[in-house]
Amino acid sequence: MCQATHGPEKLQTFRIKVMRQAKATIMSVNHAQRVDLEVVADLIPPQSRVLDVGSGDGLLLELLQATKQVDGRGMELSQRGVNECVARGLSVIQGDADKDLKFYPDKGFDFVVLSQTLQATRNPKLVLDELLRIGKHAIVSFPNFGHWRVRLSLFVEGRMPVTKDLPYSWYDTPNIHFCTIRDFVNLCEELGATVEKATALDANGQKIGLSMPWWFWNFFGQQAVFLLKR
């Protein structure tokens, strides 16, 4: 009788332990470079239908499937990225966010994620508009060009900055539309998007207090994660 009563509880405890171990293992692979992924993953409930636009090497989808058992799909521009995702056992196709999102149906996914990719698109406004159409919720993360280190580099050195979150030189960067947190908030307002949650991360990957005003996030946030809906 005791075994029947406590069996489900023990099983649930075991599942939670396994999920935490999987999360720690996956994030340790690339945690220093992509601290935003854990923040993104925490915003998505278990068993959600997720489309990851700009999947890269598939780290986020792998994390979500291991810890949240999501029904995950992905789109990645580079063939190399697609190959890496497929090697991880992920369902990812090759596609261009600027051109191919129009083929997805309205509200076809619970969450559409665009992680560290918006600034590399040719038409960020159109891409964000499509994300809000395809998903019941959209999650967007991006490096903040308004961070004080970026401003200082431009002011003191007079050169385009190279930082941990903006690691490319101006002549070989894939980023073609830099923006600040305030720029992104203004774009959301233009598109009629509601900000459900937002998180700014400092240079150490630590969350900045939610009570801080936008200008504080814009100055001290090295990157940001937004949960949106429309």
From TrEMBL:
Gene3D superfamilies listed in its UniProt record: Vaccinia Virus protein VP39
UniProt cross-references to CDD domains, sorted A to Z: AdoMet_MTases
Recorded superkingdom: Bacteria
Cited InterPro entries: Methionine_synth_MetW, SAM-dependent_MTases_sf
Pfam family, one: MetW
Protein name: Methionine biosynthesis protein MetW
